[in-house]
Design goal:
alpha/beta; elongated; binds zinc ion; 7 strands; 247 residues; two-stranded antiparallel sheet
Length: 247
């Protein structure tokens, strides 16, 4: 802990504040002499917040490459409008997050053609949710994630429980490639738990909602319902697949 910061290594400090009445107007209180009444409140120091963020980042399983992704480094100049729209939705989600995180419609999905920067933006969003909102985010790359778990029953169960319980679950490239019934069943268990408990999902997938419903109708409709306020669908040849080249 930084001994030079204002908490002197304690992790918190006291701050004087005007005492307020507990009524609707929060009227400032005075002593009978007319002097303003002050109270001391304890405030979490910046160093504690940084330490928490560092720990949350280290257990997020976000790759070192994706940890560097930010909204600022996602450039939209010269790209199709849908790419800028995707960035807008991601930043809007970040701003709205404290108000929607416990609602049913608390999730975000970027669907469709690869190369538009879906993973960059969702990684930037995840990084911001960790460092600024101190959320426990878990990154789960669909293919590699299940490859690591297929033959290890205990590890699978531990991981599935973690995927159910974390504040935010980020599934990257959902159902990429040939996915098996086994994988669909595992994802369904996790998504269903999170749906029932109003826990946010971040999803990137090359499939659109129709295709997700083809793979599993209940799963597709749950993802749709949870993320319909923050879904971007990229399709067609109307836009150029140039993001990855510039990136
Ligand atoms: Zn401090």
């Amino acid at each position: 802990m930084n001994q030079n910061c204002r908490c002197d290594g304690k992790g918190f400090y006291f701050k004087k504040e005007r005492a307020l009445k507990e009524d609707e107007d929060k009227t400032p209180m005075n002593w009978p002499t007319g002097e303003p009444m002050m109270i001391e409140i304890s405030v979490e120091c910046e160093c504690t917040i940084k330490k928490k963020a560092k720990r949350l980042m280290s257990i997020s399983e976000i790759t070192d490459e994706f940890k560097k992704k930010s909204f600022a480094s996602f450039l939209t100049e010269g790209k199709e409008p849908i790419v800028a729209e995707m960035k807008e939705i991601a930043t809007k989600y970040y701003v709205d997050y404290p108000n929607i995180k416990k609602e049913r419609r608390n999730s975000i999905s970027f669907l469709g053609q690869p190369g538009a920067g879906k993973t960059h933006l969702l990684s930037a969003l995840a990084n911001n949710l960790i460092t600024k909102r101190l959320q426990r985010v878990l990154y789960f790359p669909f293919i590699e994630g299940f490859n690591d778990l297929r033959d290890d029953f205990n590890a699978l169960n531990r991981k599935l429980e973690e995927m159910q319980r974390v504040d935010v679950l980020f599934i990257d490239d959902l159902f990429k490639g040939k996915c098996s019934d086994w994988e669909v069943k595992q994802v369904m268990g996790v998504v269903n738990y999170r749906y029932l408990n109003n826990k946010p999902l971040m999803i990137s997938s090359e499939h659109d909602i129709d295709k997700l419903c083809d793979i599993d109708e209940a799963l597709g409709t749950r993802i749709y319902e949870m993320s319909k306020d923050y879904t971007v669908m990229i399709k067609g040849d109307r836009w150029k697949l140039n993001h990855r080249l510039i990136d």
